[in-house]
Amino acid sequence: MKTAIEPFKIKTVEHIHITTREEREKALAEAYYNPFALRSDKITIDLLTDSGTTAMSSKQWGALMDGDESYAGSVSYYKFEDAVKKITGFKHIIPTHQGRAAEKVLFSVVAQGGKTIPNNTHFDTTRGNLEFIGANAVDLPTEIGTRPEVIAPFKGNMDLEKLEETIKKYGKENIPLAMITITNNSGGGQPVSMENIRGAKKILSKYGIPLYLDCCRFAENAYFIKTREEGYADKSILEICQEMFSYADGATMSAKKDGMSNTGGFIATNSDDIAERCRTNLIVMEGFITYGGLARRDLEALAIGFEEVVDENYLKYRVAQSKGLADEITAAGVPIVLPAGAHAIYIDAKSFAPHIEPKNFPGQSIACEIYRVGGIRTTEIGSLMFGKEDKDGNHIAPPMELVRLAIPRRVYTKSHMEYIAEAIIEVYNNRNNLRPMKITWQAPYLRHFTCRCAYL
Ligand code: F0G
Fold it and tell me: Is the CB of 120 under 6 A from ligand 1?
C-alpha cells in the first residue's frame, strides 16, 4: 500500500475553537500583532510549536498512574534512565523539566567565562542561555543550508571547514564543547547526515573537544538518514539512533519533542566530572537528581514515549503528513524551504513577500495574515526572532526570513492539513496586500516571545 496512514486510532477527542474573522481581527489587535500573545481559545489550529503539544498514547496515559512520586530514588526515574540509555548509550542521564533547563545547567558548568560554543545552528534558547552568561554562540550552517530553494538531502549539516576555522580562531582551550542540533530547527528543520556527525567528531577529536548533540528530534533525524543516506536503508531506527549517539560525548534534549510527551528533558554525558557538577547545579536550579523538576509520572510517560518514537511506521506517517502539506502548497506556488522536513514546514517569507524588507518583518506580516484568514497560529523565524541592530541603528538580518508551521505529533488529521493548505494558499494569492511592520516594544533578550508589533 502506498498510502501512509496514521498508525493509531482516536479514543478521546478535544474540541477546537472556530472563530469569525471579526473575532480574529480583534484578538490579533489585542495581542499587539504577536501570535505568541494570542489566547489559545481564539485559535483553530495551533502550529506555533511541536514542543509539548504531542498527543500521548493510551499506554502513556495509563503509565501516569504508575508514577512513583518519591522525591529521591523514584522507580519512575530508573525506567526513564533505561529508556534513554537504550537509545543513546550515554553513561549519565540527568532529567530536567525541559530542554532549556538542560542547556542552562550544562552551560553553567562548562561555558562560564566567555567560552565559545560552535553549533550547526543554535536554537534560540540555546543561544539565549549562552549569551546570558557571556558566552559566544557561533552558528556554522553550510552554504546550501541557507538557500531555501535548493533541494538537498542534508541541509541541516554543519560546515566542517568552518568548524576547523572556528577552533583555530578562538583556540581549543576556549571551546569546552561543540554542538550539533538534530534536526536543525532554526535552519529550516533540515536533517544532519551520519557522515556529517562522524566528520565533526573526527575534527573535534583532533583538538580534544567533546561533541554534544542537541537531540530534540533525534528520531526524525534518524528516519531521514534511513531514507536518504546510503547504507542505512536496512538498519532499524534504533540502530541508526545508537550510531548517531555513539559519535557524541553527551547531549541535551527537550523531550517535549521526540520524547512524545508534554514536558521533560535531559542532559546526558559520558564525563563523570561534568555529570557530577551538573547534578550539583541541578539540585539548585531544577530539583533532585532523580526528578529534575518533573513530576515523576512524567518520567513514566517519557519512558514509553522513547519506545514509541523509534517505531518506523510512526515516523513514516509523520514525514508523509508534513510532505503532504508541503506538496499541496508548493503546487500552488508557495515558496518554502525545500525539501520538507518532519516537524515543520517553513515558508520562505523573502520570496513570498519580496516587497517587504527584512527590517519590516515580512514573516511576521505573513504569520498575522495566516491567523486572520484561518485562525491558524504560526511563528516567524527571521528578523523578528534573530535580527539585530548595529551601532548606527542599521538592521542586521539573519540569513533567512521564515514562517514556521510546526506540526504537533499525532494531533491533526488529513482534513486539518487540507484546511491549513487552503488558508496559506489564500494568503499567498493575496500576498501583494501584505503590509510592513515594526516593533513598538521589546525585551532585551528573546524579544520575539513578548514584543509588541504594529503595521507601519
Ligand atoms: N533545542 C532545540 C533544537 C529546540 O527546538 C528547542 C525548543 C530547545 C532546544 C529548547 O527546548 O522548549 O524544551 O526548553 N524548541 C521549541 C520549538 C520551543 O518550538 O521549536 P525547550
Answer: no
Percent of the chain at pLDDT exceeding 70: 100
CA of 355 to the centre of ligand 1 (A): 31
Domain of 28: which CATH number? 3.90.1150.10
Residues 111-125 have a mean pLDDT of 95
- For residue 209, pLDDT over 90 is answered with yes
Which of 277, 308, 339 is the endpoint of a domain? 308
Strand, helix or coil at 374? Answer: helix
CATH of the domain at 130: 3.40.640.10
Number of domains in the chain: 2
Q: Which ranges of 89-214 does DSSP label H, i.e. alpha helix?
A: 99-110, 124-132, 160-170, 194-207
Question: Rg of the chain's alpha carbons, rounded to an integer?
Answer: 21
Based on the fold, state whether residues 193 and 73 are members of the same structural domain: yes
Q: What is the pLDDT of residue 254?
A: 98
DSSP code string of 45-94:
EE-S-SSS-PPPPHHHHHHHTT----SSS-HHHHHHHHHHHHHH--SEEE
The last residue of one of the domains, among 279, 308, 337, is 308
- Residues 336-347: pLDDT tens digits? 999 999 999 999
Domain assignment present for residue 8? The answer is: no
In a domain, 362, yes or no: yes
Q: Please give the model's pTM, rounded to 2 decimal places.
A: 0.96
Task: Write out pLDDT tens, residues 434-455.
Answer: 999 999 999 987 899 999 999 9
Strand partners, 181: 214
Q: Is 185 in the pocket of ligand 1 (CB under 6 A)?
A: yes
- The cell numbers describing 348, all together, are 520562505
Question: What pLDDT digit, counting tens, does each position of 163-177 carry?
Answer: 999 999 999 999 999
Averaged pLDDT score across all residues of the chain: 97
Q: Is 12 among the domain residues?
A: no
270 with 330, same domain: the answer is no
Task: Answer yes or no: do 29 and 106 share one domain.
Answer: no
Angle separating helix axes 75-88 and 296-308, nearest 10 degrees: 30
- The reported pLDDT for the residue numbered 56 is 98
Indicate whether residue 216 lines ligand 1 (CB < 6 A).
yes
Structural domain includes residue 6? no
Which residues in 101-130 are b (16+ Cβ under 10 Å) and which e? Answer: bbbbbbbbbbbeeebbbbbbbbbbbbbbbb
What residue numbers bound the domain in which 376 lies?
21-50+311-455
- The residue contributing the CA closest to ligand 1 atom 8 is 99
What is the arithmetic mean of pLDDT over 66-72? 98
Choose which residue among 125, 186, 378 to substitute to test ligand 1 binding: the one with the highest number of ligand atoms within 8 A of its C-beta: 125
